[in-house]
């Protein structure tokens, strides 16, 4: 049996809207994406926030299998997807038998945890301008180029609506903290002033809540 036949035998087709698992579900399987896209989301306060979109070659459900904890997120199919489904016993055998796979999985887990922790921390800011600024600063620093293309789903990721995000971006441009090019690429204009204003918003957010 060649690779294509093996994938055909062990994979399943899932239609858009299918929920693979909900936040709080027990760990049971690992899903490897051969085709399609999966949305990973988490409830923060009263909002359902999109943490990331996974595509071919990526996987989900592994964290709960490793920690034996309930699912920390919800995974939803957003494009017709062909997924390789691996149960907990198969997953453990694979990890034990393949050291290289184990290391790749651990690196992926570490990166995903780091990003998730940052995003959840950012979403805890009640000040929406600060929330956007914190996210942009992180993405620009990670890009290594001093600029980043603003994703089309940024509003959804940060628990905002499109109009609210557009207004915030316009205000940041007007304050000369950022500039936007025609292809929606964002660049921080004055790093020192940007950081000072962000620090002010973070402090105000913290102490406004403390004083209530």
Report on this model:
- It is a single chain.
- With 212 residues, the chain is of the alpha+beta class.
- It folds into 2 domains: 3-123, Jelly Rolls (Sandwich); 128-211, Winged helix-like DNA-binding domain superfamily/Winged helix DNA-binding domain (Arc Repressor Mutant, subunit A), CATH 1.10.10.10.
- Helices cover 49% and strands 25% of the residues.
- It has helices at residues 3-10, 62-67, 88-97, 99-123, 128-143, 154-157, 162-174, 191-211; strands at 11-14, 19-21, 29-35, 38-44, 47-54, 59-60, 74-77, 81-87, 147-149, 178-180, 185-188.
- A 4-stranded antiparallel sheet has the order 1-8-3-6. A 4-stranded antiparallel sheet has the order 2-7-4-5, covered by helices on one side. Strands 9-11-10 form a 3-stranded antiparallel sheet.
- Strand 10 (178-180) and strand 11 form a beta hairpin.
- Helix 5 (128-143) packs antiparallel against helix 8.
- The radius of gyration is 20 Å and the shape is elongated.
- It starts with a helix and ends with a helix.
- 22% of the residues are buried.
- The model has no long low-confidence stretch (mean pLDDT 81).
Give the low-pLDDT segments.
none
Largest sheet: 4 strands, antiparallel
> Helix coverage percent of residues?
40-55%
Distance between the termini: 66 Å
Q: CATH homologous superfamily name of the largest domain?
A: Jelly Rolls
Structural class: alpha+beta
Globally, the shape reads elongated
Total of helices: 8
In total, the number of domains comes to 2
Q: Give the amount of beta strand, in percent.
A: 15-25%
Number of strands: 11
Largest sheet strand order: 1-8-3-6
State the name of the first-level CATH class of the largest domain: Mainly Beta
CATH fold descriptor of the largest domain: Jelly Rolls
What oligomeric state is this?
single chain
Order of helices and strands: HEEEEEEHEEHHHEHHEEH
Radius of gyration: 20 Å
Average pLDDT works out at 81
């Amino acid at each position: 049996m060649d690779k294509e036949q093996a994938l055909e035998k062990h994979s399943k087709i899932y239609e858009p809207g299918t929920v693979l698992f909900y936040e709080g579900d027990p760990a049971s399987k690992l899903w490897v994406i051969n085709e399609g896209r999966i949305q990973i989301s988490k409830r923060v306060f009263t909002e359902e926030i999109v943490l990331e979109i996974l595509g071919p070659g990526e996987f989900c459900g592994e964290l709960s299998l490793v920690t034996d904890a309930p699912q920390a997120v919800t995974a939803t199919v957003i494009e017709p997807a062909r997924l390789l489904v691996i149960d907990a016993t198969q997953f453990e055998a694979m990890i034990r038998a393949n050291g290289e796979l184990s290391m790749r999985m651990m690196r992926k887990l570490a990166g995903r945890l780091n990003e998730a922790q940052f995003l959840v921390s950012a979403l805890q800011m009640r000040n929406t301008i600060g929330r956007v600024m914190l996210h942009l600063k992180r993405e620009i620093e990670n890009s290594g180029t001093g600029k980043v293309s603003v994703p089309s789903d940024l509003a959804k990721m940060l628990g905002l609506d499109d109009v609210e995000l557009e207004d915030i971006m316009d205000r940041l441009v007007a304050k000369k903290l950022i500039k936007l090019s025609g292809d929606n690429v964002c660049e921080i204009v004055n790093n020192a002033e940007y950081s000072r204003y962000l620090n002010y918003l973070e402090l105000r957010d913290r102490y406004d809540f403390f004083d209530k």
